[in-house]
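WARN  no MSA supplied for this record, continuing single-sequence
INFO  ligand: 5-amino-5-deoxy-1-O-phosphono-D-mannitol
INFO  echoing inputs
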Amino acid sequence: EKGGYDHFMMKEIYEQPRSIRDCMRGRIYPQKGLVQLGGIKDYADKLKNIDRIIIVACGTSWHAGLVGEYLIEEYARVPVEVEYASEFRYRNPIITDKDLVIAISQSGETADTMAAIELAKERGATIFGICNVVGASIPRLTHAGVYTHAGPEIGVASTKAFTAQVTILTLIAFYVAQQRGTITEAKLVEYLTELDSIPALVEQTLKANEQIKIIAERFKDSANCLFLGRGSSFPVALEGALKLKEISYIHAEGYPAAEMKHGPIALIDADMPVVFIATQNSSYEKVISNIQEVKARGGHVIAIVSEGDTTVKDMAEYVVEIPQTAEAFVPLLATIPLQLLAYHIAVMRGCNVDQPRNLAKSVTVE
Ligand code: M6R
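INFO  complex generated
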């Protein structure tokens, strides 16, 4: 049942080339520069007239929402807010019939997310769902939606569901852009062609597993760990920290790299591993100066870099290379080494990775 792996989590990490492919199947036509999302096609016209998108979710699904915010604002030019469902539901939020609410949930049963949907629905918003479990409660509560088709996720720590959610949000960003005319067909051909190659690039990224084991061995006894990234790599940092804390019980925090100097930098000493997502994109130079700040204080730098990078390689104690890709798709690759790092550290510490203490796979109470 675990397909030859020791744990479901590892099986599910390795399934990602397939699950991301399944997510895109029948939905992208790279040569035509076309995205088709059958589940929301009845709302294609509505998308031309929305004022705002509000994403509601919890935990890892909320992190996926934050990646979605970058992508939707960049390509579809619609303002996006990402809300913890548990906060949104009790805040008397301002919602109109020109709002689109996107609820993200692997299980489709999360109580807070369901309550947020009900509230937004009462106030006249259109509600889309992004769920993994077919026929769950959330898909039944929403007006329309897109399934992630990642297959059953057994490990309590979400892995393949996260990358599937990010993939769907990428497709939704392009779909809304298509409806609103904020992207050209030529650009879509370019992006969709690149997106089509992501499953193969994830496969390539997984080859870093042995190297990540060495990093895990070095830092498995740490008491704390920081994860830093900028732009759409900031939610990846949050997700890396959540994975590590929930399965290894090491205290971990994710921050936007530039926020470090507003507080967390005080924590850095010779016992602090700091994981940077330092790929070659628009914030590369700025992340490099953040790396220097950590080094100057004796922190240990582990960096996720673009293949062929030499600058960060000279500065960091450990680097993990991921294939070059468009900035929009970096989260789909950069997440993989962080999942593996959390997994190996947890196994080395003797933790129950598939069933961490105090956690349930679906949180059906508030
Ligand atoms: O089923 P959902 O996506 O609604 O679940 C939301 C969170 O409970 C979930 O992502 C949780 O944070 C995971 N344990 C993270 O790995």
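Residues 163 and 340 are 14 Å apart (CA to CA).
INFO  checksum written, moving to next record
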